[in-house]
Design a protein that fits this description.
Number of domains: 4
Mean pLDDT: 78
Order of helices and strands: HHHHEEHHHHEEEHHEHEEHEEHEE
Strand content: 15-25%
CATH architecture of the largest domain: 2-Layer Sandwich
Number of strands: 12
CATH topology of the largest domain: Heat Shock Protein 90
Radius of gyration: 45 Å
CATH class of the largest domain: Alpha Beta
Shape: rod-shaped
C-alpha cells in the first residue's frame, strides 16, 4: 500500500522558518559555492606548476582576495537595492510618500520593480492629497452649514459636532465629545422615527426636523443626525393660514357688524320719540347700547387682527438703539423703566416697526408689574416700593447680532408655550396679538424673539436678537399680495 503524503504541522513550519538563514547569508553562501570549484581547480593547477612555494601561495592569495572582492560586490549589488525597496515600502506603510527607490530604469528586472514601487508611491501620495482635500472640504462645509450636525458611535456617545451644534447646546466641542445622547438632551433624536419632528428644549421650545443616516469610520458604524429648525417655517405656515381665515372672517363680520350697529343706533334714536313707558324705554336703551358697544368692540378687535395680517415689510434705515430705547421707555409712565445702557450700536432696521414692537413688550412688562403689585397689596395689605417693582431694559452686542433684553418683576408665565398663540390672552381687555405681532416684526428683520421666566427671581424676560445688518423676508410672510 502506498503511504499517504505527509502534512507539516504549523509548529514544524514555524520552526523551519526560524531555522532558515537570512537572505544575506544565503547570498554569501551561494557566492562561495559559485567560486569554490574554480578556486579548487585553479589551486591544483597552480600547485602543479614548477614555481616556488612562495610564488604559488602569493598567486593563490591574490586569487582568493579577488574572489572575495567580487563576492562582496555581488552581495552588495543584490542586497542593497532590496533594502532600499524595503525602506520605501515601510515608508509607504507609515504614510510617508517622500522616499523613492533608486536605479528605477526600464528593461531591467530590479529597475522595473523600482519603477512600480515609485509609481505606487506617487499614486498613494495623490490619493492621500485628494482624501485630505476632500476631508478638509467636508469639514469646511459641515462647519459653515447653519444646521446642527452630530455623529454618535454605537454606544450613543457623541463623536462629531459642528459649530451650529455647539451653538445649540451652548457648549464647545471639547466639552461635548464623548458625552452620551441622554446627557446632551438628544436622546429623542435617536429614538424617534427618521424624518420626523421632535421638540428640543434648549432655551426655546423649538421644533426640529430630524434626519438620520449611517456611516462607517475605521470599520465602526456611526449614526449621523442632522437637525433642521422648522419652527419658523411652521409658524409662517400657521400665520398664512390664520391670515387667510382673518380675511374671510373679516369680510363676513364687517358685512354683518355695519348694519347691526346702524340699526341699533337708529332704534336708539326712535325710542326717544316713542310713547313707551320710561321703564321699558330704559330696558330697550340698555339692550341697544350693549348691542352697539359690543359691535364696536368686535369691530376694533377685528381691525387689530386685520392690521396684523396686512403688516407691510420693513423699510430699513440706520437706527440707534440708545435713542430708540430712550424714546420708548419715556412712553411708559405707569412703572419705572430702568435702562442699562450697552455699547453704542447703529444697525439697519425699520424704526417704526421696532418702536411698535418695543412699546408692546414694555406695555406687557408694565402690566405684569402692576398685576404683581396689585396681588401683593391684596395679600399683604402694604404697597411694595418702586425699587422692587420695575421694568429693566438693556442691550449688548454679541458677534454680528444685537441682543435686547426686557425684564419685569411680575408674576411670571404659567404656560409659556401659549404665549405666542394667536387669539390667546390672559388679560381681560387683551386682544392676543401683541406678542404675535412683536415676534413677526423681529423675524421680519431676520431676528428672533424669545419669552421665558427669569431664573434669578420672579418675573419674565424677553430676549430680542436682531442682526446688525438686517435683511427682509419675502412679502408673502406679511400677508402682502
Amino acid at each position: 500500500m502506498g503511504s499517504s503524503p505527509t502534512v507539516d504541522k504549523p509548529s514544524t513550519v514555524k520552526r523551519r522558518k526560524r531555522q532558515r538563514a537570512p537572505f544575506e547569508r544565503r547570498v554569501t553562501r551561494l557566492s562561495i559555492l559559485l567560486v569554490a570549484p574554480a578556486l579548487l581547480v585553479s589551486g591544483i593547477v597552480i600547485w602543479l606548476q614548477p614555481w616556488s612555494v612562495q610564488s604559488k601561495l602569493m598567486i593563490l592569495g591574490a586569487e582568493s582576495f579577488a574572489c572575495l572582492l567580487i563576492g562582496a560586490a555581488l552581495h552588495d549589488h543584490i542586497v542593497r537595492p532590496l533594502q532600499t525597496l524595503a525602506n520605501v515600502v515601510g515608508a509607504l506603510r507609515e504614510e510617508d510618500y517622500s522616499f523613492r527607490a533608486r536605479l528605477a530604469v526600464p528593461n531591467d528586472a530590479l529597475g522595473e520593480l523600482s519603477l512600480e514601487v515609485n509609481a505606487l508611491a506617487d499614486l498613494l501620495a495623490k490619493h492621500r492629497t485628494g482624501a485630505m482635500e476632500a476631508t478638509a472640504l467636508l469639514q469646511r462645509v459641515v462647519e459653515e452649514v447653519d444646521i446642527p450636525i452630530f455623529a454618535f458611535d454605537p454606544a450613543n456617545r457623541l463623536r462629531l459636532v459642528n459649530s451650529a451644534g455647539e451653538k445649540l447646546l451652548h457648549l464647545h466641542a471639547a466639552q461635548l465629545i464623548g458625552e452620551s445622547c441622554s446627557e446632551l438632551g438628544l436622546e429623542s433624536c435617536l429614538s424617534c422615527e427618521n424624518e420626523s419632528l421632535v421638540e428640543l428644549h434648549f432655551g426655546t421650545d423649538a421644533r426640529w426636523f430630524v434626519r438620520r443616516s449611517s456611516f462607517r469610520q475605521q470599520g465602526v458604524p456611526h449614526t449621523l443626525v442632522v437637525l433642521s429648525d422648522v419652527s419658523r417655517a411652521l409658524r409662517e405656515e400657521e400665520r398664512r393660514a390664520w391670515q387667510r381665515l382673518i380675511r374671510v372672517l373679516g369680510h363676513e363680520l364687517n358685512n354683518s357688524l355695519a348694519p347691526i350697529k346702524s340699526i341699533a343706533g337708529s332704534l336708539h334714536a326712535r325710542l326717544m320719540g316713542s310713547g313707551i313707558r320710561s321703564e321699558e324705554q330704559q330696558d330697550f336703551q340698555r339692550g341697544l347700547s350693549i348691542i352697539e358697544s359690543r359691535a364696536a368692540s368686535l369691530n376694533r378687535f377685528l381691525q387689530g387682527y386685520r392690521q396684523l395680517a396686512q403688516m407691510p415689510p420693513p423699510v430699513l434705515q440706520q437706527c440707534s438703539i440708545a435713542v430708540l430705547a430712550k424714546r420708548v421707555a419715556g412712553l411708559e409712565t405707569r412703572v419705572p423703566v430702568a435702562i442699562t445702557p450697552g455699547s453704542e450700536i447703529d444697525f439697519l432696521a425699520d424704526p417704526d416697526q421696532l418702536e411698535q414692537m418695543l412699546i408692546n413688550l414694555l406695555r406687557n412688562a408694565a402690566d405684569a408689574v402692576l398685576q404683581a403689585q396689585e396681588e401683593g397689596n391684596n395679600s399683604n395689605g402694604s404697597k411694595r416700593s418702586d425699587g422692587e417693582q420695575h421694568v429693566a431694559f438693556s442691550w449688548k452686542a454679541s458677534g454680528e447680532d444685537l441682543i435686547i433684553s426686557i425684564e419685569d418683576t411680575g408674576p411670571g408665565l404659567m404656560n409659556p408655550s401659549n404665549a405666542f398663540v394667536p387669539f390667546y390672552t390672559t388679560k381681560p381687555t387683551g386682544s392676543g396679538i401683541g406678542l404675535v405681532l412683536s415676534r413677526q416684526i423681529a423675524e421680519a428683520h431676520g431676528g428672533t424673539l424669545e419669552l421665558g421666566n427669569r431664573l434669578d427671581r420672579q418675573g419674565c424676560i424677553v430676549k430680542i436678537t436682531l442682526p446688525v445688518k438686517a435683511h427682509q423676508t419675502s412679502d408673502e410672510t406679511f400677508g402682502v399680495k
